[in-house]
Amino acid sequence: MSQQINLLRQKGLPQAAVYSAAVLLGVGLVAVLGYGGMASQKLSSAQAQLASEQQQVQRLKQAIQAAEIARRAPDGIQALDDEIARLNARSQQAAPLLASIEAGAAGDPQGYSKQLGLLATIPRDELWLTNVDVGKSSKQVLVAGRAMRNEQAVAYAKRLRDAFDPLGVHFNAIELRPEPLPNSAADKPATVVNFKIS
């Protein structure tokens, strides 16, 4: 029996080579992980886009099915035609009313903002308004309220007449009605004047 022994010494790898190999291995690992992360991100983006497109395809299929059902069912089309005819008849009935509103026969199409805005700018010394009524195509205004004295109501009527004259609203009458206050003394009753200006 013979045995062989190798007496030659094997040289080990230098330490720098081991370090270089470890660095290369680490860089390679980072590159593989980075590429994997990018691929994963692209994959999830593609999956989201696919899901969105599948939903859109599903909606289109449903729309096609609904159109197909409507095409096959003459009763559905007839019902729609009947509804359209009914709505056309109603719009033709409302056309004269709409035309009169646009022409101003039923009042100013913009409402009473001019009259109410002007009314708000007129000073009201020691009186308060209780009712305002605008009618006859915005050309008639009735103002009612209370004043402490007759003179205040008359002065207010003159200010109304002067302010509203450019709008074509004319105030021709004032009604004054004194009313005793409920909590006034019996020997010297306090009164308030109810007024209507029209």
How would you portray this structure in words?
By secondary structure, the chain is of the alpha+beta class. Among the domains are: 73-103; 113-197, Gyrase A, domain 2 (2-Layer Sandwich), CATH 3.30.1360. Helix content is 57%, strand content 16%. The protein has helices spanning 15-72, 74-103, 113-121, 150-164, and strands spanning 127-135, 140-147, 174-180, 191-197. It has a 4-stranded antiparallel sheet with strand order 1-2-4-3. The protein is elongated and about 155 Å long. The mean pLDDT is 79. Residues 43-70 form a coiled coil. This is PilN domain-containing protein. It comes from Ramlibacter aquaticus.
SS element count, helices: 4
Quick one: overall form?
Answer: elongated
**How large is the share of residues in beta strands?**
15-25%
Structural class: alpha+beta
Q: Indicate the radius of gyration in whole angstroms.
A: 46 Å
Task: Give helix % range.
Answer: 55-70%
Distance between termini? 144 Å
SSE order, as H and E? Answer: HHHEEHEE
* CATH topology category name of the domain at 113-197: Gyrase A, domain 2
Strand line-up of the largest beta sheet:
1-2-4-3
Low-confidence blocks of residues: none
**Average pLDDT score:** 79
Strand count, sense and closure of the main sheet?
A: 4 strands, antiparallel
CATH class descriptor name of the domain at 113-197: Alpha Beta
Question: How many E strands?
Answer: 4
Keywords: Coiled coil, Membrane, Transmembrane, Transmembrane helix
Organism: Ramlibacter aquaticus
Protein name: PilN domain-containing protein
Transmembrane segments: 16-35
